Amino acid sequence: MKVKVCGMRDPENLRQIAALRPDYLGFIFYKGSKRYCDGTITPELLAELPATIKKVGVFVNEATETIVEIARKFKLDLIQLHGHESPKQCQEIKNAGFEVIKAFSVDDRFVFENTLLYERSCDYFLFDTKGDSHGGNGIPFDWELIKNYLSPTPYFLSGGLNLENIKNLEKVRPKPFAIDVNSGFELEPGLKDVEEVKLLLEQTKNRN
Q: Where does the N-(5'phosphoribosyl) anthranilate isomerase (PRAI) domain lie (predicted)?
């Protein structure tokens, strides 16, 4: 199971987390987020990252041209779309040469069949907790709901993950391709707890 650490915005903290070698690092390019990274994270800084770490840019209801421009400037590997983006826009970004993660906000009323419209245009899905913000709400949804997901598209599990509740991931079926951690591993918004992330990576490695 892969690990994505999202919401990086402090340069030194980024270097510390990158030294632990997570599979993915996420950078939020949505101005409405308290983890908005543009201005603190530079293309030169991302160029220092180990080649094994894939760089993910997170966008919310942004124009395709803007997303592609930023993605090329920062040499991102994947684009995560966390708003109301259409399958058509996902395909446009995929055609531009980037892998696409489409995020869905999940609650008891979420219809997993809605993901079928996106299967051809997305490489991955991400299931996060429906809340007031576009991600980073810090609360998990009921993982029992995942049993209703029948698509072959691999998915990232997000929403309030921490060192305590990841112990229950063994019970989640179908199994996540990756977990996406953010607020549950922070000292403050955008500043990750290095020791806790280290423990997380050790636990997931041992589980595999």
A: 3-202
Per residue in 25-65, pLDDT tens?
999 999 999 999 989 999 999 999 999 999 999 999 999 99
Give the CATH number for residue 94: 3.20.20.70
Diameter of the chain measured on Cα atoms: 43
- From 6, 37, 90, 122, the catalytic residue: 6
pLDDT digits (tens, 9 = 90+) for 137-192: 568 999 999 999 999 999 999 999 999 999 999 999 999 999 999 999 999 999 99
Rg (CA), the chain: 16
Is 107 marked active-site? Answer: no
- Residue 3: which of 34, 24, 31 has the closest Cα? 24
pTM of the model: 0.95
Catalytic residue status for 38 = no
Query: How do strand 186-188 and strand 191-192 relate by DSSP bridges?
Result: antiparallel
Q: Please name the residue that has the structure tokens 């607020």.
A: 183
Domain boundaries, position 85: 2-207
Number of domains making up the chain: 1
